[in-house]
């Protein structure tokens, strides 16, 4: 009897902690002998359609998934959903969270500058682009820089 390997929790570059495209993840799973897989990106279902199509071409089983970040009674949770459809409401969730994160980042930048620094979003983006930081990491890196500056002031 042939063994069947599965991996039901990975993130594509649509998640802030993902690195690879959905196609790359399917290829990596295929090369590793995984026959059943799911990409559970944080608050997005963008990867599911292309990953499912590519997995099917490789005779793999793909289970559409999502990982929803939420808070319940003051506790941060990550709720996994499997076998979901690609309903637009899931991507609206991701867009809403992205807008909240951007607003928070701009507030942190404002607070950092109130401490006497002269940081501008465009200058940070230009610097980061020069050192070859992928765009998907830019927002996270800006937040980290601002947090460090605030903590060490």
TrEMBL record:
<dbReference type="InterPro" id="IPR003141">
    <property type="entry name" value="Pol/His_phosphatase_N"/>
</dbReference>
<dbReference type="InterPro" id="IPR016195">
    <property type="entry name" value="Pol/histidinol_Pase-like"/>
</dbReference>
<dbReference type="InterPro" id="IPR004013">
    <property type="entry name" value="PHP_dom"/>
</dbReference>
<protein>
    <submittedName>
        <fullName>PHP domain-containing protein</fullName>
    </submittedName>
</protein>
<dbReference type="InterPro" id="IPR052018">
    <property type="entry name" value="PHP_domain"/>
</dbReference>
<dbReference type="Pfam" id="PF02811">
    <property type="entry name" value="PHP"/>
</dbReference>
<feature type="domain" description="Polymerase/histidinol phosphatase N-terminal">
    <location>
        <begin position="6"/>
        <end position="72"/>
    </location>
</feature>
């Amino acid at each position: 009897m042939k063994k069947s390997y599965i991996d039901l929790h990975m993130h594509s570059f649509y998640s802030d902690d993902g690195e690879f495209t959905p196609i790359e993840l399917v290829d990596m799973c295929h090369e590793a002998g995984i026959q059943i897989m799911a990409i559970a990106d944080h608050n997005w279902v963008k990867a599911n359609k292309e990953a499912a199509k590519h997995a099917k071409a490789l005779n793999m089983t793909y289970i559409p998934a999502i990982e929803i970040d939420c808070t319940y009674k003051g506790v941060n949770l990550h709720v996994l959903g499997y076998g979901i459809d690609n309903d637009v409401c899931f991507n609206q969730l991701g867009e809403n969270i992205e807008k909240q994160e951007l607003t928070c980042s701009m507030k942190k930048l404002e607070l950092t500058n109130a401490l006497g620094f002269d940081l501008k979003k465009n200058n940070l983006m230009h610097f980061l682009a020069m050192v070859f930081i992928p765009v998907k990491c830019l927002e996270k890196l800006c937040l980290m820089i601002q947090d460090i500056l605030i903590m060490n002031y």
